[in-house]
Amino acid sequence: MAELCVDKLTEDILYACASPPVAGVNAVVKIINYDDIDRAATTFATGFTSEVIDNLAIVEDAPVLTLQGYKRSNNPGFDLVKVENRPDKFTHLLEFIIFQLTKENKKALNQLTKGARIVVIVQNVYLGPDKGDAFEIYGFDTGLEIQTATRRLNDNDGVTNVTMQSQDGEEEPNAPYTWLDTDYATTKAAFDALGAEAPGGGGG
What we know:
Strand order of the largest sheet: 2-3-11-8-7-1-4
Radius of gyration: 18 Å
Structural class: mainly beta
C-alpha cells in the first residue's frame, strides 16, 4: 500500500502555568553561512527529528559571525505558508538594525546583497519550563536571504533596517528548530563559543 505522507496530531498543546510566555530575544545573534553547516553530521533528538537539533555541526574553520543588537532591535519570527497540493511550509525571517553604517558594516551589507545566504541562531528570553526552549535556529534547511534594507538619515537616528527572509518558493519545511545539546548550560556554552576563535572574536 502506498504511504500517505500525512501526519496526525499526537501531541497535546498545553499551557505551562509555571512558565508563562515572555517576549524578547537576546541582543546577540550568531550568523553562519548556509553552506558552512555540516548537515550530514548534524543530528536530531530522538522523537523530534523535525523539531530539535541536539548536535549542530559546522564545517571546520568556517567563520561564525555576530550580529550585535540593542534591546529589542533583533526580531526573529516565522509565518505559515499554505500550499494547495504539497505540504505547508514556513517563511523564517529576521528583522534587525544596523546601527552604525561603518565601512565594515557596509561591506557586510553589500555581501548580503550579492547572494550571501545565512542561518541564524537566536537565544530567546523565554527559556521554557525546563530551560529547553532557549535557542532556536532559523533558515537551517534553505537559508535566509536579504529582502529589504532601508535607511533614512533624518529618521530614527539614521539607522539601517534590514530584513532577512526565506526566498519565495524556497520556504522551510518546518518551524525553526530548537537547539538543545544535552541541557541549557551545555547549549549556552556552545552558543557563546561560536565564533570566539575567529579573528576579532567573530564580530563582522
